[in-house]
Amino acid sequence: MPNATEAIWAKGEYITCADTARLIRVQLAHHFPGARFSVRSKTYSGGASINVTWQDGPTRQHVQDVVEVYKGGDFDSCIDLHYHVETWLRPDGSAAYGFSAGTVDSRGADNGYAYAPPAPDARMVHMGADFVFVDRDYSEAFARRIRDELAAHWSRVPGDFPELRSQGGDSWCLDWDHPATFGYTAGPGQCDPVRLFREACEQVDAP
């Protein structure tokens, strides 16, 4: 009896957006045990996409590195062109880049590629989601730790570094309306607190 990923692998050359989301869930659980993700698929006129969201846990880049290969297309902004790509899929649900014609022949900037199968049991498929988006939220505890570390380094007088603000529920960010978010960029050696906060958060894996 095949398991869920083997059943998807056996379906054929086209993997639906919903099945692509199922494959992504399996890979996220494998790469980031203990982290909780929301993986939602959406189809609409002319395309489909998958949104991966989570709080704290691994950085955006770490998650992006896992899920990027599951998208069935790409976009060249130089010529405003969306194009399809093909992917190698194994029975365990893992994937590898397969084939892309790129856009150079259309006067674009994206080079094509053609990779050999990563294993004898890999098959070339087309993923049903054109894009896979990732979005990470920060809990108050995690955001507070990052904010206070930045304030200790950048603050010039007590209270001049922006505080946190809620984005709804338990999702927190730096208060972009604080006067310091503008005043800190006034001269050499100054900082943009909002940018620093985002960059600092994305350098840290949280529990």
Report on this model:
The structure is a single chain. With 207 residues, the protein is an alpha+beta fold. It has two domains: 4-136, no CATH class; 138-201, no CATH class. Helix content is 28%, strand content 28%. It contains six helices and twelve strands. It has helices at 4-9, 17-31, 60-67, 140-154, 180-183, 193-201, and strands at residues 14-15, 37-44, 47-55, 73-76, 81-84, 86-89, 95-100, 113-114, 123-127, 131-137, 164-166, 172-174. It has a five-stranded mixed beta sheet. A hairpin with a 5-residue loop joins strand 6 and strand 7 (95-100). The protein is elongated, with a radius of gyration of 21 Å. The chain starts with a helix and ends in a 6-residue tail after the last helix. The mean pLDDT is 90.
Short description:
By secondary structure, the protein is of the alpha+beta class. It has helices spanning 4-9, 17-31, 60-67, 140-154, 180-183, 193-201; strands at 14-15, 37-44, 47-55, 73-76, 81-84, 86-89, 95-100, 113-114, 123-127, 131-137, 164-166, 172-174.
Quick tags:
single chain; 207 residues; alpha+beta; 5-stranded mixed β-sheet; 6 helices; elongated
